Structure formats: C-alpha cells, structure tokens
Amino acid sequence: QDDNTTDTQPHQSFNEVCDRVSTFLATLTDQTDREQRAYTAAATLARSMSSEDTKVSTSSLQIRIESDLLDMAATKASARDAIAERIERIGSADGDVSRPLG
Questions:
Q1: Separation CA 100–CA 92 (nearest Å)
Q2: What confidence tens digit (pLDDT) does each residue in 1-10 have?
Q3: In this structure, which of 3, 25, 31, 80 has its CB flanked by the most CB atoms within 10 Å?
C-alpha cells in the first residue's frame, strides 16, 4: 500500500508551484518588478495554504514564502548568468562564432 503518496502530494504540488514561480521570477531583470511579483505570488500561496484553524498567521507565512521565492529566483538567475558568461567566453575563445563560413 502506498499511503505516503497521498500525504506528500500537496507538499510536492506546493514545491512544484514554487519552482515554477521562482523560474519565472528569475527571468525578470528589474529587481523591483521581481519583488512585487514575489510579494503577490506569496500572498496568493499563503492564502491558499492557510485555514482558520492554522496556527501560523497568513502574513508570517507570506513573508516566509516571499523570501524563499526571491532566494530561489536569485539562485536561478545567478546560474543562468554564469552559464551565459561561460558560453560567451567559449565563443570568444573560438573566434567570432557569428562570422559566416566561406
């Protein structure tokens, strides 16, 4: 029997949503825009997760989610930029890759 599957499904869905949102946020180059969108997404996620019997307030949950989303987005943006820089260095080391052959 796979009883753990039903218990972890909401957790996995939440992680997937956060991963997708942070990937989107990582594409934004304007820090203010990134922060505003993280704030909005975190508010929506916090409201959807909290219930009246939850001991953690929605606002504290929102702050934690927003912080996590921004951290994840910054990590992804950093990795993307590092890869782009490496590709650029490789391209310049090999000569002008945009120059036509022949």
A1: 15
A2: 444 444 556 6
A3: 25
User: What is the number of other CB atoms lying within 10 angstroms of the CB of residue 59?
Assistant: 11
Backbone angles phi, psi at 89, to 5 degrees: -65, -40
Q: Which residues of 66-92 are buried (b: 16+ CB within 10 A; e: fewer)?
A: bebbbebbeebbeeeeeeeeeeeeeee
Q: How far apart are CA 95 and CA 15, in angstroms?
A: 42
Number of H helices, E strands in the chain: 3, 0
Residue pair 56/47 in contact by the 8 Å Cβ criterion: no
* Greatest Cα-to-Cα distance within the chain, rounded to the nearest angstrom: 72
- CA distances to 23, 34, 41, 53 from 68, in Å: 12, 13, 11, 24
Map residue 37 onto helix, strand or coil.
helix
Phi-psi region of 95 (alpha: psi -120 to 50; beta: other; left: phi over 0): left
CA atoms within 13 A on the CB side of 52: 0
